[in-house]
Write a structure and sequence with these properties.
mainly alpha, 6 helices, single chain
Amino acid sequence: REYGLGLIPWSPLAGGLLAGGLQNAKEGRRAERKDSAKRHQAQLESYELICKNLGEEPANVALAWLLHNPVVTAPIIGPRLLEQLESSIQALEINLSDDTIEQLNKIWPGPGGEAPEAYSW
């Protein structure tokens, strides 16, 4: 922000974890998704409860949360189906309260530390 640069997040749904990750991990065959869901189970449970209370799909809340960040130009989404694209567009209509954004930031605080080291693999 200090330099007037925007950010285009890649994989804004964290490989599906923020799109109903607990249920998807149970149904999916990918071992890494199951491991990640297990590792972040408490966070995912809190996150999915917020989504349920908002009456919104988890994937749409994740995208809306990103779009509420003034640094984010646009998230890179990768829908495989037309209905996924149409659903993602709904994120533009979701207005998150400051309280909800604060709750989401507490659940998913980010890695911390200096960039780019803290954000690299």
